[in-house]
C-alpha cells in the first residue's frame, strides 16, 4: 500500500508519500508549502485570503498525487489553526466540494499521541519529555517506561509567538521574556507541574531547524542529532543579543524559510527544557505524519 499524507499545520502544509513494506513505512518523497495560515486568522476566523492560500496549496498537492497511479489512499489532516477557527466547518465543506478531500481534524491530545508514536520510529523515547513545536501550538508529552503518562497541547507555537509577542522581525530580550512567561502560564493552566526529566525528545520542523543552527554555532557535523540543553540555552541567549542584521544573516544562511519563526520556536524549546530541568535534547527525524501512518493506517500503538 502507498499512502499520501497531507499535513495542514499553522505555518506549513506538507505532502508526504509513504510505502508500506514489511510493516514499516518508507518515505518516498515529501514536499511543503509555507502557507502561514495562523497569520490569516482575524477575529477567530480564517480570512478569505487564508482560505484561498490553503485551497491553492491543497489543489497543487492533489495534482501531484493524481499524477501517481499507484497511490492507494490520500489522508489529509489538520492541526491547530484549522482546528481552532470558528469557520472550520465552512473550510472543510469547501475543500471537500472543490477538491474531493475530506480533512480530518486532530485534537491536541491526539496530535501529541501521534507525535509520540512517530518519534519512537527513529528515537528512543522510553523516558522523559517529548515536544512538537508547531506554528500555532506545542504538544508536550511526559513519558515513563515507554508509555504516555500525561500530555497537553499548549496554545503557542513558533508562528503564533511571533505574531503575538515580537515587534519587528526578530525576538529580542523583552519578547523572549514574554514568550517564556506565556509558556509557563500555559503549563500552569494545563496542570502540568515542574518535574525533572533528563531527556527531551524534540519532534517537528522547529526542532530540526534549531538543530541545524546548533550544529552551525558549535561547528558540528551533520550526523549530530543531540544537543546539550545548557549549550542550547547559551546559544539562544547569544543569538538574541546579536544585532538584527547578524541574526538575519545567520538564519538566511541556515534556514531562510524560517526567518521569522526560528527564534520564537527556539525560545519555546529552551523554556520547556528549563521547566523540566532537561539536560539532553534528542531531535527526532520522524513525527506526527509518521505517527499517523503507523497508528491510524498500520495499527501500531
Description:
It holds the Pfam family Ppx-GppA. This is Exopolyphosphatase. The chain has 11 helices and 13 strands. It is α/β, with parallel strands linked by helices and 301 residues long. The protein folds into 2 domains: 2-105, ATPase, nucleotide binding domain (Nucleotidyltransferase, domain 5), CATH 3.30.420.40; 124-283, Nucleotidyltransferase, domain 5. Helix 6 (173-189) packs across helix 10 (262-275).
Overview in brief:
InterPro entries: ATPase_NBD (IPR043129), GppA/Ppx_hydrolase (IPR050273), Ppx_GppA_N (IPR003695). Belongs to the GppA/Ppx family. By secondary structure, the protein is of the alpha/beta class.
In the CATH hierarchy, what is the superfamily of the largest domain? Exopolyphosphatase. Domain 2
- Judging from the principal axes of the Cα atoms, what is the shape? globular
In the CATH scheme, what's the topology name of the largest domain? Nucleotidyltransferase, domain 5
Largest beta-sheet details: 6 strands, mixed
Q: Structural class of the secondary elements?
A: alpha/beta
Percent strand: 15-25%
Instruction: Give the count of helical stretches.
Output: 11
Output the helix-strand order: EEEEEHEHHEHEEEHHEHEHHHEH
Would you report the number of β strands? 13
Strand order of the largest sheet: 10-9-8-11-13-12
For this entry, what is the oligomeric state of its chains?
single chain
CATH class of the largest domain: Alpha Beta
Q: Which CATH-level-2 architecture of the largest domain?
A: 2-Layer Sandwich
Q: Compute the average pLDDT.
A: 95
What percent of the residues sit in helical stretches (DSSP H or I)?
Answer: 40-55%
For the termini, the CA-CA separation is 19 Å
Computed CA radius of gyration, to the nearest angstrom: 19 Å
Integer count of domains: 2
- Model regions low in confidence, pLDDT < 50 over at least 5 residues: none
GO biological process, one term: regulation of transcription by RNA polymerase II
Pfam families: Ppx-GppA
InterPro entries: ATPase_NBD (IPR043129), GppA/Ppx_hydrolase (IPR050273), Ppx_GppA_N (IPR003695)
Protein name: Exopolyphosphatase
Amino acid at each position: 500500500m502507498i499512502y499520501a499524507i497531507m499535513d495542514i499545520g499553522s505555518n506549513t502544509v506538507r505532502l508526504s508519500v509513504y510505502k508500506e513494506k514489511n510493516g514499516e513505512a518508507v518515505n518516498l518523497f515529501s514536499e511543503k508549502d509555507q502557507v502561514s495560515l495562523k497569520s490569516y486568522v482575524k477575529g477567530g476566523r480564517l480570512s478569505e485570503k487564508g482560505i484561498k492560500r490553503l485551497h491553492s496549496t491543497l489543489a497543487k498537492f492533489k495534482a501531484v498525487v493524481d499524477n501517481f497511479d499507484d497511490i492507494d489512499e490520500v489522508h489529509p489532516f489538520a492541526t491547530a489553526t484549522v482546528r481552532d477557527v470558528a469557520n472550520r466547518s465552512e473550510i472543510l465543506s469547501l475543500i471537500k466540494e472543490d477538491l474531493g478531500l475530506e480533512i480530518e481534524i486532530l485534537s491536541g491530545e491526539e496530535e501529541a499521541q501521534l507525535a509520540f508514536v512517530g518519534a519512537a520510529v527513529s528515537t528512543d523515547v522510553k523516558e522523559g519529555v517529548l515536544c512538537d513545536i508547531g506554528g500555532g501550538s506545542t504538544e508536550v508529552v511526559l513519558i515513563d517506561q515507554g508509555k504516555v503518562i500525561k500530555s497537553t497541547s499548549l496554545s503557542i507555537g513558533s508562528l503564533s509567538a511571533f505574531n503575538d509577542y515580537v515587534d519587528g522581525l526578530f525576538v529580542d530580550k523583552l519578547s523572549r521574556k514574554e514568550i517564556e512567561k506565556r509558556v509557563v502560564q500555559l503549563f500552569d493552566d494545563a496542570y502540568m507541574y515542574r518535574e525533572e526529566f533528563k531527556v527531551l525528545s524534540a519532534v517537528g520542523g522547529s526542532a530540526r531547524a534549531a538543530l541545524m543552527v546548533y550544529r552551525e554555532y558549535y561547528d558540528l557535523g551533520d550526523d549530530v542529532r543531540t544537543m546539550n540543553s545548557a549549550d542550547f540555552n547559551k546559544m539562544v541567549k547569544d543569538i538574541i543579543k546579536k544585532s538584527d542584521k547578524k541574526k538575519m544573516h545567520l538564519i538566511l544562511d541556515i534556514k531562510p524559510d524560517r526567518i521569522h519563526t526560528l527564534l520564537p520556536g527556539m525560545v519555546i524549546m529552551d523554556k520547556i527544557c528549563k521547566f523540566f530541568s532537561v539536560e539532553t535534547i534528542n531531535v527526532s527525524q520522524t513525527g506526527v505524519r509518521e505517527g499517523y501512518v503507523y497508528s491510524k493506517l498500520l495499527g501500531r500503538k
